[in-house]
Amino acid sequence: MVKFRVWGVLRYLSHAEMLGTLQRACVRAGINVRYSQGFNPRPKLSLPLPRPVGVESDDEVLSLRVNRGTVGWGLPHHCQVGGAGPALRRIESRLSAQLPKGCELISVSVAESSASIQPLSATYFLPIRLEHLNDALRATIDRLLASESLTVRRKSGAGGRKVKNIDVRGFLTSIQMTDEGIIVECKISPAGSIRVDEVLSLLQLDQGMLAGPIRRTSVQWQ
User: Fold this and answer.
1) DSSP secondary structure string, 33-93?
2) Chain segment 118-132, per-residue pLDDT in tens
């Protein structure tokens, strides 16, 4: 399991583009990633929680499976779960050197081969221009938190042709206003979560009111 952060222009990469960037970094680092079987083998890498395009993140996770006890930068058979032996330090050093600017490796650790990494919640920081941090915004926050339901119109499908009304109140855990912006904690479940653009809409904010890029500051993982 690889933890990393994303900022700057790399925040504009889509989920697929980010995964491709990390895959190429693993290849250049010589990491012995395991591949699927069949006629079209694919590397066993995944990003358990897609990052919204344009959003920075301090707590990204890449799950990858590597071969043990083989030639190359795989893991030896004696490497323990959660361990930080020489093999892990080599992987961390080589992978870190291959990541582009705007993608910084935080740590590399070993998990059980059968482990499934699932996000439970995510916290976002919305930097707001000073003139918009006012009583009206605070009143909007209070109204949202006091509401029993919050319905948004969510588009999906090719060209956003499909529109569905969704009650996102159950996904909105907390909203706090600070001197620099707003901190929003969102619940994540198999049923889904609330989207960042939906949070902005409910708060009656647009991109012009932001003082900088939105940042996902932390994720609670299971």
Assistant:
1) B-B--SSS--B-EE-SSPPPTT-EEEEEEEEE-B-BSSSSB-B-TTPPTT---HHHHHHHH
2) 999 999 999 999 999
